[in-house]
Amino acid sequence: MDKYFEEKRILVTGGCSGIGRGVVLELWRLGANVVALSNQAENLYKLKSEYPSIETACVDVRDWDKTRQVVDSLGVFHGLVNCAGVGLMEPFLECKPTTFDESISINAKAILNISQVVAKKMIDNKIKGSIVSISSQASKAGFHDHVAYSASKGAVDAMTRVMAVELGPHGIRANAVNPTVVLTELGREVWADQTKAKQMMSKIPLGRFSEVHEVVNAIIFLLSDKASMINGAQLPIDGGFLAT
Hints:
Elements: E1 9-13, H1 18-29, E2 33-38, H2 41-50, E3 55-58, H3 64-73, E4 79-82, H4 97-124, E5 130-134, H5 147-167, E6 173-179, H6 185-190, H7 194-201, H8 212-223, E7 234-237
Parallel strand pairs: 1-2, 1-4, 2-3, 4-5, 5-6, 6-7
């Protein structure tokens, strides 16, 4: 797929850390004109310093109007990857409204906002684009302390289905990926406790967590024309966890 995305302009939210950074760098390697959007100004600066040809945009996606303004100013895109997200963990009986609202705002509402702007320009410019959003296995299975997170990711799956139905007639595909634990820098810290990690891995038939590149590869596939008939899917990247 050398230079496969040449002359394609793709926006990646949450693009300077974790899965988002991995997607940005792989798209850059494949020749895309990539824009990394994040609220992490320092990490965006580091990314830009290392890869000057990658565009960056800094905005807090919780701010509906400002985010809309920034994304609109970036122009037309052939693809969008919604990676920006937050994981706030509280038990069901103790979950605070602020925790729930924050989770929905970043993990779901921001996807609605950004995808609306990008999709409208795709339609106006007759671009048969692709939108990929990061969901989670937690949208499809119950986990302790995940009530707000699971609700927000369930919303991602539901929005993906609706986007597929409504945008499909315009030639725009919308899909989601649903990873298990991913060994980003943060993921390694959260799951550093080997007892806790082994307990979780025992529920995964492949017996391990996902590496970042394994999620990135799936996203790249869904963005590409190689997935031209895949629309409205929620693709597990979980080593078989949801099959058990």
